Amino acid sequence: MLWPANSPDLNPIEHMWDELCRRVQQHHPPPANLGQLLQWLQQEWNGVPRAFICNLIHSMRQRCVECLAHNGGHTRY
Question: What is the pTM of this model?
Fold first, then answer.
């Protein structure tokens, strides 16, 4: 594992960004301007359920275990 700290498998924020993106894309029509996009991003960020965030945090141990088991390669995360 030359660069395990740079592994996206060890970075739960990537899953948070994905969730945020999905939530914003549910708005129709698309944002009319940058200000509206920023407003929606803030609204959706604040609306992410606490359980989702806790799950990301609690998955860190297993993420590390799998990353080590796969020598820094691809994992299910």
Answer: 0.72
